[in-house]
Amino acid sequence: MKTHIKNIKTIFLLGVVLSSLFGFTQSGEENRQKADKGYAIGDVITDFKLRSTSGSFVSMADNRSVKGYIIVFTCNHCPFSKAYESRIMALDKKFASQGYPVIAINPNDPSAYEEDSFENMQVVAKAKGYTFPYLQDESQLTSKAFGVSRTPSVYVVKKEGDKFILQYIGGIDDNTQDANAVTKRYVEDAINNLLAGRPVVGNFTKTVGCAVKWKGV
């Protein structure tokens, strides 16, 4: 009887140890997955240098007078991106003069959609009269660093010294289909808070759009 109880205790203790080890492993895996998702609010953003439709290469450090940027990952083919074209242009028109210009980046593999080729990016930028740089992330390394999964997605960054700190991640507003029916302007609210010296309260919203087309997938 004593031997039986001792065996039960041994099995119980072994189970506890195994459970602890499994829990530790699972926790480590969860942390790794979170890290793979890209930047989080408060992170310092690594600068990039990407080709613009103008032919020049653009980075965040190019403009020393900015207070930050509205970085929009968008593209040509996606109907959600097309629906937001005029609103992205309006954001640049409203906030560029206040220190928060737009930088648009196309994260897609152009072989997946010919419409997203660099040449077609140039056509769209010229036809629409973009007042902001429209960049091609040819290597897709910048898009992966940000953790972009859909277009359009917005990342608002604030300049602090020579660093750019992430302040907002998500959508532009709460109505993709009808700009006149928008009730919540997420990006505008974020920028207005920053300009007023206040923290961004709603600093994350769900992004609705087209999945990014990755190379080799």
TrEMBL record:
GO MF entries: peroxidase activity
Signal peptide: 1-25
Metal-binding is among the record's keywords: no
Any Pfam family: AhpC-TSA
Residue spans crossing the bilayer: none
Domain Thioredoxin: 39-192
Keyword terms, alphabetized: Oxidoreductase, Peroxidase, Signal
The name this protein goes by in its record: Glutathione peroxidase-family protein
